[in-house]
Amino acid sequence: MDHDHFSQDGEVNLFAEVILPLALPVNYTYRIPSHMVGEVVPGKRVAVQFGKSRMYSALVRRVTDTFPARYAPKEILEVLDDSPMVTRQQFGLWDWMASYYLCSAGEVMMAALPASLKLSSQTRIILNRDSHGQEIKLNEKESLVRQALEQQHELTVNDLAKLLGQKTVMPLIKSLIDKELVYVSEQITGGYKPRTAAYLELDPVYQDKEQLRELYQLLERAPRQLDALMTFIRLAKDKGRVPKKELMEESGVSSSVINSLVEKEVFIPVTQEVSRLQQEDVAILLEQQFSAAQQAAYEETRSLLESKEAVLLHGVTASGKTLLYIKLIEEYLEKGQQALYLLPEIAITEQMTQRLRSHFGDSLAVYHSRFNDNERGEIWKKVLQGTCRIIVGARSALFLPFQDLGLVIVDEEHENSYKQFDPAPRYHARDSALYLAGLYKAKTILGSATPSLESYYNALQGKYGLVTLQQRYGEVMLPETLIADMLRENKKKTAHSHFSSQLVEEIKRSLENKKQVILFRNRRGYVPLLQCHTCGYVPQCMHCDISLTYHRSSGKLVCHYCGYSEKLLSSCPACGSLHLEQKGFGTEKVEDELKILLPQARISRLDLDNTRSKYAFQQILNDFEDGNIDILVGTQMVTKGLDFSNVTLVGILDADSLFRYPDFRAFERSYQLMVQVSGRSGRRSERGKVIIQTASPRHKIIGMVLQNDYKAFYQSEIDERRQFNYPPFYRLINIHLKHKNEEYLAETAAGFASLLKARLGKRVLGPQIPVVARVRNQYIRDLLIKIDRENDSISKVKEIFSICLAELKTRHKSLLVQVDVDPL
């Protein structure tokens, strides 16, 4: 052991390898001061300086007595935690993700931790004005920070350090976050908002019978108020509080009568969180008993889990997979273990949460990006302490610090939303969940009506168990699927703009029967293309190589890649012609045309454009669920696993656009989308209908959807994947190279491709120019690496690629490189 290992007084020096919240190729090592020895352990956060002046909360990965070879280590400044915030299993997941998805540990850390756990000198701190700050005991420095934040909208960690004259203030900020006096501004947008309702309680004064008798006498001169009070007493007999809406309906009084009683302090208004499900839906779920098919599937699943680590549950839409999940969760809770229930979309998470909470109560917690940072930090700590036993969430819930995870459920496992696209790590939550479960020796259930080809292949190969559930619950039949030949309709001139005569007739029939309709068009905006009829000019984005989409609601032409917009043209800027032809149609146009065709119908739209505000998505779903919308027009948002009991008709307006796309997964995605949106129809007591509008009624994918024949679809696709070397037989790595100079990019991409081909041979394809060759003024070139799963060493190929990639980044520092393993 050399002299660097000893301090001046002869004690052994210890060092901490830490993960910084930065995209660094390696972790850095810091010296542990003697007074911190024993405090600094893996999983705790420490305050460190990186670079000349930046401060970060880094995460201790390991403690060592090895002096770093290439630099003199700086000292750790502060220990921020009393106990580890990250577990051994979490580090195992992080290490695997960094290795498998070819990214840095810092990038994984940034994705994994809530903002309050990854402070830096540039982190912005905001005063929580909803907290009861005056009631919290604060020391002198904490009080000074509060006073400063009361005068400023926000301050950075660096600002607060200067204010207090300290090198690091991270322990102080951690204390204020724990006391809920401040929060991190990174997470203040898009806060989760539960559905609430106005309730009324009787003032406690009137619990006294004498006081109540006097109140009756006082209200004799106001008979409507007396009626309201008497009705309240009857309704509140067992519940204590009564919904304001129910009281008005039962007593027949107006809102003003109720408000008068509030002003007289007879009633106390209360806001209470309520279920997003209709009450009868909750009751149905709780009262459900297994059907014979469900019972068989449940027993087969349990049996397979004895020998398999994962089971694929292939159940048709509305087959009752949720009830199976609940029964399985119960088993693992009885063993004292935790369960993770992953869903692909936040919207589905909220609907499913209400169902599960009605069954499991307060042992359930929800975790996703719509919650603010305080809420996510609180859930993190509860999971770490083991007090949260069931976690329901989107893909980020994978990163929570589970103590004893027993069961992982990945519902709708086929969904693309499980894949993280930007920034790194570009991980797939389904595959990461399987690895996570292995770390805890937990079991995994993958559920879908339309499994991904990879999952179904793995099940047939015996890697997963396979359970099928081919009957809908309650003996409800699968919807009747009909084809509308749009070529024939247009020739006969029987179509109503973009609606077949058949679809219009069925919509009218549904509305007459007080039923609801979902119409699916997977393109937002009014029209995707404007073109000059005279010279052929098409408006293009200034920053991207893509045409602009016309949005009638804003009156603008918009780029869907970078957000650039400009006013709608009145004439062609190239030739001056006034004839600009609108080509194609989006959800906006569908909505407008329906309002003309069916003026009495209540129509709404569900797409990215009208769900940008915090709670718009929830509000539209609430209105549809409550029967305030007759027809819901939407993009693929409406295909997700949402459950609406009154929908009996689904229309797919342009099926051809789904499968006519230059991508090897196009047929798989189109089949899944059509089957999933079809599954929204007829989910309760009566059989629903689906109408598919297409110009290709004999296309093989249309035929398979018509027959609901997943096996035929799978066999057709798997044969082509095998023939052309695609997953599941080959693994793919996509490399996107970006630069502002197209000539420089083309030359660099060609050189990198040559380097890779010299090392990896025919596995490397490209470079090629993608369909959209420039985005945000960055030109793009793509390379693809195909790795044979049977004959190649995947780890060896990745190792060679990583060496070549490091060489590329060293030589071309201005080049932006994005690596996507298992791209979708």
UniProtKB/TrEMBL annotation:
Task: Give a single Pfam family match.
Answer: DEAD
Which residues participate in Zn(2+) 1 binding?
C532, C535, C572, C575
Substrates-to-products reaction catalysed: ATP + H2O = ADP + phosphate + H(+); Couples ATP hydrolysis with the unwinding of duplex DNA by translocating in the 3'-5' direction
Q: Enumerate the spans annotated as Helicase C-terminal domain.
A: 564-721
Cofactor(s) recorded for this entry are: Zn(2+)
Known Gene3D superfamilies for this protein?
P-loop containing nucleotide triphosphate hydrolases, PriA, 3(prime) DNA-binding domain
Q: Enzyme class, one word?
A: isomerase
| GO biological process, alphabetically ordered | DNA recombination; DNA replication initiation; DNA replication, synthesis of primer; double-strand break repair
GO molecular function annotations of the record: 3'-5' DNA helicase activity; ATP binding; ATP hydrolysis activity; DNA binding; zinc ion binding
Q: List keywords of the entry alphabetically.
A: ATP-binding, DNA replication, DNA-binding, Helicase, Hydrolase, Isomerase, Metal-binding, Nucleotide-binding, Primosome, Zinc
* GO CC term (a single one): primosome complex
Could you tell me which residue ranges the Helicase ATP-binding domain spans?
Answer: 302-469
Question: Is Hydrolase set as a keyword in this record?
Answer: yes
How does the cofactor bind to this protein, according to its record?
Binds 2 zinc ions per subunit.
EC numbers: 5.6.2.4
Summarizing the function annotation, the protein's role is: Initiates the restart of stalled replication forks, which reloads the replicative helicase on sites other than the origin of replication. Recognizes and binds to abandoned replication forks and remodels them to uncover a helicase loading site. Promotes assembly of the primosome at these replication forks.
Oligomeric and partner information: Component of the replication restart primosome.
Q: Which family does it belong to?
A: Belongs to the helicase family. PriA subfamily.
Please report the name of this protein according to its UniProt entry.
Replication restart protein PriA
Tell me what organism the protein belongs to.
Anseongella ginsenosidimutans
Gene symbol?
A: priA
